[in-house]
Here is the input.
Amino acid sequence: MLAPGPWGYNLDAMQVAVMLGDKRGGLAEVPDPVPGNGFALVKVLVVPMCTEYKVFAAGQPGTSLGHEAAGEIVTPAGPGLLRKGQRVVAMPLYGCGRCELCASGDYIHCHECFDHDQHTVEPGGSATYAQYLLRPDRLLLPVPDDLSTEHASMACCGLGPTFGAMQRMRVDALDTVLISGMGPVGLGGVINGVARHARVIAVEPTPWRARLARELGAAEVLDGRDAAAAVARVRELTGGRGADQAIDCSGNAAAQRLLVDAVRRRGEMAFVGEAGEFTLHVSNDLIRKGLTLHGQWHYNLADGPRIMDVIRRSRSLLDGFITHRFPMSRAEDAWKLQVTGECGKVLLDPWA
Here is the structure.
């Protein structure tokens, strides 16, 4: 429990998940973060796991982990929209809050993303694999009363990147959307497409992930290793035109090329999966085909109510999307599971 103090409590210890190196994980005790300077203190209730497992798989240590969380306000940042006890989803990263990108809701692209510890009363509170965290009010998305905290936590990387891509490309019920890479982000894309009543074609060679994509509503799942056959099948399914939109969640250059080839003329494609170099032919892919490319990281904060509506419509699918839950004390087991690839979205409970 938090005892009264100058900021509403005394500095006690909380638990955080850490990577110890050599593919080992555990818990550590660190001081509770201190709110102030416009930051709210949030008790973390759900930790959706994301790409941190790649650091674990590489055998590297890590002590300040995570960028997704949902919880409840313990100490508000001050008078404003949020109140004590209100449930919120903590958005990733930190914009300056002053520039035109932040003011328009596209804070994720802020030129002045700041060092969290330089703006808090004491260092700490940025990690989400933790029992408490700190965030500015503007980066806490309120959770509607009719949604569970688990479901609402999918408003970060579970649904967020592909939701942003579909918003940007205006995907609707008349569209066929091609999505490559059925990890958790790509599977979230299937759910986003289904919520919009679009036809979703997935590309995934792994049988376990392909099966889950079908269960979540993909109309067809293509292996993708035979790119020519996959492109031919997309065209067959679309009357020879190609997909209206494509979203790459794999970060794999071969999959990206497949999508460029399979999308229709004057179609659109969004790059969501983190990746390196990829070669495009300016004349054939862009000028003559008329393809529009988008880089998509997150979504505009003004669309917060809209993503919550997608979650509201998708509750039964989210129950299938969230495949595993672990107490935070078993974070090592959760990371090992993620390395296998045989999971959807994995959640940690910081208090179990």
